[in-house]
Design a protein that fits this description.
Number of domains: 1
Distance between the termini: 55 Å
Strand content: 15-25%
CATH superfamily: Spore Coat Polysaccharide Biosynthesis Protein SpsA, Chain A
Number of helices: 13
Strand order of the largest sheet: 3-2-1-4-7
Radius of gyration: 21 Å
Largest sheet: 5 strands, mixed
Mean pLDDT: 93
Helix content: 25-40%
Order of helices and strands: EHEHEHHEEHEHHEHHEHEEEEHEHEH
CATH class: Alpha Beta
Low-confidence stretches: 331-337
């Protein structure tokens, strides 16, 4: 049985990908074992990614075109069942499925690894992943996050159909973030995919959340199929459980690791931060964001002399607009770029 890690990436998130790969490598050295890594291509922008992969013996790029086409068709069919998704996206300037490349994470269910952990590229691994793989002995889908507290970013909570499909208890406990999860090859075979599409076409599709399409579809797939799931955030004790998101300001850094109330984080997710921020700081622009130093440590782990050196206070990436700007916006007067 082969355990491995999938990462969805392209050249746009190159700096984040390198940091993630280095963090996986760093922990592998500490634990004495390395997991193979397979990069799922978000699109065809892979020139820098390919160059990076050539430097690493245990990393490959997923190249099974029929599997990519299969899951893109599934995503298209799922969203085609929605009453107005294509119309809304078209009005917003998107042709077809919004962020189709994000749905390619589903290819992991038909990839080379028997059991896998999927990671978004804007993540750093800071602790052992072995306990997550171990939980797959008991469950078919494993997560570790607090998304269940915020269902509005997974389903259309205004849909009257939602509680006809999933009970409030399930919504309050089973929802997860699609940025990190562990599962198994073959979990969604042809029959299960056909069943899911049939349910979506019979009215389930209206509960899908259009602004996070892949996350919404994946949650639906897992919950509608009755997959056996486990969320460590709900079952670990208060002394053991940790946060995982960059939005939490209280993590303590020590030896290039992060701790939450003395417990080390398994991973840090820079969720909500634009990839442009990471590109800018790696290009030498002194722009600040939470836990920037730990990102830079892993980004330049193998080439520390290239790490940007900053001697002044960083610019805040989300600095609030000035009074003049707010007034102009309120009056609807366009600002100079």
């Amino acid at each position: 049985m082969t355990d491995g890690i999938y990462i969805l990436a392209n050249d746009v998130v190159y700096d984040q990908l390198v940091a993630l790969l280095n963090s996986i490598e760093a922990y592998s050295k500490r634990s004495g074992g390395a997991y193979p890594v397979c990069i799922l291509p978000y699109d065809d922008k892979l020139e820098r990614v390919r160059e990076e992969v050539e430097k690493r013996s245990n990393v490959e790029i997923f190249a099974d075109t029929p599997v990519i086409e299969l899951w893109e068709k599934f995503a298209f069919d799922a969203w085609q069942a929605h009453p107005n998704a294509f119309k809304v996206w078209s009005e917003q300037g998107t042709s077809g499925v919004y962020r189709m490349g994000m749905h390619r994470r589903f290819c992991a269910f038909d990839g080379p690894f028997d059991r896998f952990i999927y990671l978004d590229a804007d993540i750093l691994v800071l602790n052992s992943l072995e306990y997550i793989f171990k939980q797959l002995d008991n469950n078919d889908f494993v997560v570790y996050d607090f998304q269940y507290k915020d269902p509005a970013h997974v389903y259309d909570v205004s849909s009257k159909q939602l509680l006809n499909i999933f009970s409030q208890a399930r919504i309050n406990s089973e929802i997860f973030c699609a940025g990190m999860y562990a599962s198994k090859k073959g979990l969604f075979g042809a029959k299960k995919r056909d069943y899911l599409l049939s349910q979506l076409r019979q009215g389930d599709s209206e509960i899908l959340y259009m602004n996070a399409p892949d996350q919404s579809v994946l949650n639906y797939m897992v919950m509608r199929s009755g997959v056996s799931t486990w969320n460590f955030a709900r079952y670990l004790s208060e002394n053991e459980v940790t946060g995982c998101c960059v939005t939490s300001p209280h993590f303590e850094e020590k030896d290039n690791l992060l701790y939450d109330k003395q417990s080390r984080l398994t991973y840090l997710h820079y969720i909500g931060l634009s990839s442009k921020l990471f590109t800018r700081v790696c290009a030498g622009e002194n722009v600040g964001f939470p836990y920037r130093d730990i990102f830079l440590h892993y980004r330049y782990l193998n080439e520390p002399t290239r790490r940007p050196q900053f001697k002044t206070k960083p610019k805040v990436y989300n600095k609030p607009p000035s009074l003049a700007t707010r007034v102009l916006r309120k009056l609807g007067i366009p600002m100079e770029v």
